[in-house]
Design brief:
four-stranded mixed β-sheet, about 15% helix, about 40% strand, elongated
């Protein structure tokens, strides 16, 4: 009985190894490829409470349609929106990023793009410096009345 069980296990192992060797490698040549025009956007120095939006344009340089499954930012102060429909071969899409410019100081944030592409995870960077807005809302200074000399 022990010989039978040992023989059965041995045969199953041989069959399992044989199937593992016959598995074909994945053909990534047909997958979509996401190609960005730029991976970093530098805002430079921008005033506090200004419009902090930018766009990252991309092209599907692969053969099959490209689908962005998710786009996540590194913090809540950066809000991405993206092309939701599949992007056909040689067509373009866009990821729009809005940074909250209420906080003063230098910043660098990352946006991670997840897709069905060969390069399925791509990281985009936004950076810059927000400067405090000058307070131009002061009340105007009234002229003093001119006194006549006696």
């Amino acid at each position: 009985m022990r010989t039978f069980i040992a023989s059965l296990i041995f045969i199953l192992l041989i069959v399992n190894v044989n199937f593992a060797q016959e598995s074909k490698p994945k053909n990534d040549n047909n997958k979509p490829v996401i190609t960005f025009g730029k991976l970093t956007h530098d805002y430079g120095t921008i005033p506090q409470k200004s419009i902090g939006t930018c766009e990252f344009k991309f092209t599907n340089t692969g053969k099959l349609p490209l689908i962005l499954s998710n786009v996540k930012s590194s913090c809540g102060c950066t809000i991405p929106s993206w092309t939701k429909n599949p992007v056909p071969r040689k067509k373009n899409g866009v990821i729009k990023v809005k940074y909250n410019t209420n906080r003063v100081g230098s910043f660098q944030k990352s946006i991670t793009v997840y897709s069905n592409a060969k390069n399925s995870q791509v990281t985009l960077i936004i950076k810059g410096k927000v400067e405090k807005k000058a307070n131009n809302n002061k009340a105007p200074v009234k002229d003093k009345p001119i006194m006549k000399a006696k």
